[in-house]
Amino acid sequence: MIYGMIPLLTAQQLAFFSQNRYLELEGLLTKEACTQYLESIQSVLQQRGARDLWRDVPTLKSLILSRKCTSIAQSVCGQNSLRVACDQWFEPLFQFDHPSKIKDLLSIQGVEVVFLIALSPPPEHRTFTLGLFPFPRAVGNALLVHPDLLLNWPPQDSGLYMIAYAKANSIFIHNPKDSYSSMMRQFGYGFGDLLTNQTHPRVPTHH
């Protein structure tokens, strides 16, 4: 289901997300902004991995901490106390081996909502008997997804940008499916440690 983008989500939108665990927002980003973000991502990927890009790309950090994104995240989660979990660029042809959940990719326990944003033209929309097709329908649209929602992610010619927000008391966990879990260890985390504001900042509180 697609809804037009407005500053605050309506009761209908929140009810839809609560019932279905996903919500598509039109025009979260302009096409011009998507082009700029995509160019920044492709540039930095020449020197690093695809997780936690916001740490090296100031414009992505500004997006993740923007009132637009954080107020939406707080609204669908029903709480103000959230922090940045991570972001990630999924290259074209990325796929799940079978229908899976976003939380299965992450070594952070406590993720509350994920934004899946189309920075380039997405593939033609598909439906499956098992799992949600995780691509928004147009450039600049964002698909808000609960991390427990089953996704059906076959290989596509389009990439996808993900932003994940988590509870304030989220922890670093052992997840052998997360190929980027070692990135957490460079910050001194051990399994079971609470995420800190220094490495995973709290998002601004909106009333």
Textual characterization of the structure:
By secondary structure, the protein is α+β, with helices and mostly antiparallel strands. The protein has a single domain (2-185), classed as Jelly Rolls, CATH 2.60.120.620. The protein is 22% helix and 22% strand. The protein is built from 5 helices and 8 strands, in the order βαβαααββββββα. The chain has a 6-stranded mixed sheet. The longest helix has 14 residues, at 31-44.
Architecture blueprint of SSEs:
Blueprint (H helix, E strand, L loop, with lengths): L1 E2 L7 H10 L1 E4 L5 H14 L13 H7 L2 H11 L4 E9 L9 E2 L6 E10 L24 E4 L4 E2 L8 E13 L9 H4 L22
Parallel strand pairs: 1-2
Antiparallel strand pairs: 2-6, 3-8, 4-7, 5-6, 5-8
Features:
207 residues, alpha+beta, Jelly Rolls, six-stranded mixed β-sheet, globular, disordered N terminus
